[in-house]
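Please decode residue identities from the backbone states below.
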């Protein structure tokens, strides 16, 4: 009974002298729920996961990029515009995926489809529900980022062998947004604050975090503000890995910043989920 109360499987009787199967972690149980849901709705995500990045990269790289390259690439570090923006778009897409999966789906799991409410009737603890959902969000970010990296390679935008680290860098960027936002979204009573988050948070970060042009072209006071934006660290990390010009000190700063933000979200989520879902 003590094992069941913690949300674990009862130990199975060994067969043919074999060892008993280890219990499934509670967070993995919660992840299974989201995987079951996703198997029914995955077709709706094809546009955002596959076609959207393809058209976005093509429009910016070959559309806007052709106009930018006509005036020279010295201000871009001597690389074509497509090569400059592709890794930045990867980081931006990871941010958007994290925000999208951690905002309305979390709120809806309490308010609309009641997935979290149903999970309360199981041995899962609120922290398990939070971590399981975050694992699913991480899988979605990984899928979207991996598809985009394939397109980057097909478009010839990767210039360094360090690009093998692009996938973990993009996932870290997405989780750095998803964990804090999920810990906040579960506390909301209405969905209205999401509109302000997208309008005054995500969109300005996408425009001014060095995604489409070098940060050095901004005024000095605005540059200092940009350097504290999480997306700038994700963009700088992904761009440096793709171009091969990222020094170890800068990489350590970017990784530490994003990791600290994700850890803070994990810490806060364990508490906000308990306050909201504890019975």
């Amino acid at each position: 009974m003590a094992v069941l109360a913690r949300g674990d499987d009862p130990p199975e009787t060994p067969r043919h002298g074999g060892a008993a199967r280890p219990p499934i972690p509670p967070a993995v149980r919660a992840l299974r729920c989201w995987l079951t849901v996703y198997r029914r709705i995955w077709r709706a995500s094809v546009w955002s996961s596959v076609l959207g990045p393809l058209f976005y990269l093509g429009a910016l790289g070959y559309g806007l990029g052709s106009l930018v390259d006509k005036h020279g690439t010295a201000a871009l570090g001597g690389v074509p515009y497509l090569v400059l923006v592709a890794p930045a778009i990867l980081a931006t897409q990871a941010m958007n995926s994290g925000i999208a999966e951690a905002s309305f789906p979390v709120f809806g799991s309490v308010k609309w489809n009641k997935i979290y409410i149903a999970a309360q009737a199981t041995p899962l603890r609120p922290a398990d529900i939070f971590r399981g959902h975050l694992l699913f969000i991480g899988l979605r970010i990984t899928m979207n980022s991996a598809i985009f990296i394939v397109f980057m390679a097909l478009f010839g935008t990767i210039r360094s062998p360090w690009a093998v680290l692009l996938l973990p860098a993009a996932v870290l960027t997405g989780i750095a947004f998803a964990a804090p936002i999920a810990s906040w979204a579960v506390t909301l009573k209405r969905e209205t604050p999401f509109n302000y988050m997208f309008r005054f948070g995500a969109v300005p970060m996408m425009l001014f975090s060095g995604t489409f042009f070098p940060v050095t072209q901004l005024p000095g006071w605005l540059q200092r503000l940009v350097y504290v934006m999480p997306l700038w660290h994700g963009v700088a990390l992904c761009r440096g890995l793709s171009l091969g010009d990222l020094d170890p000190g800068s990489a350590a700063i970017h990784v530490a910043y994003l990791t600290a933000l994700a850890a803070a979200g994990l810490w806060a989520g364990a508490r906000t989920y308990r306050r909201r879902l504890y019975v």
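Observation: Residues 105 and 112 are 9 Å apart (CA to CA).
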